[in-house]
């Protein structure tokens, strides 16, 4: 287990989902040593209307997760993440060959008899449950990056309530792809601040766009996802955004 964990929101089977995952372990996953996937599905007692966990259960769920982490250390398993969706919380673990028993999960859950749960074990030598279910895709990483930038703005005194110019970057293998992207984005109100030509540091064709927006937590996905998806559809990639800090109504 690494110390690089993060969370993001997405949809699973058309239901809102919150995923908390060990991103760092994906850099060098010990597939050969831990080829068995173990799974605990917990049925929430007081989910929100959208199926995610509520504040009413926060402390209890945190305690359960702590106990699972402690049990993993005792039984030599790897906890790699969890998904909360549709009134359930799914915990994913990887075990060594021969460790098919889930008795350790039953022992851990015995401390919380009010929760219904299910367990299963399956060979997963490619770590499909981790890479195909928990690990963030491009849009998941975009959510994480957005939150990190917003958190940095907040730490610098920004209330995230005022409109300001927000710069965005995207890069493409060919100039024609960049031109197609620019055409699509200008139709959405973005303007070109700078064209970025290949140089000694980068061999692709970039563009720096801007538009006036409010970078709030409830707004930023609607701002960045059209850019990300259009860049991908045009054969390139969206490379993030930045803006000035606005405190007391004044940018700096």
UniProtKB/TrEMBL annotation:
Source organism superkingdom: Bacteria
Name of the protein this chain belongs to: DUF695 domain-containing protein
Pfam families attached to this UniProt entry: DUF695 (PF05117), RraB (PF06877)
Position of the signal peptide: none
Residue span, DUF695 domain: 3-135
Regulator of ribonuclease activity B domain location: 145-243
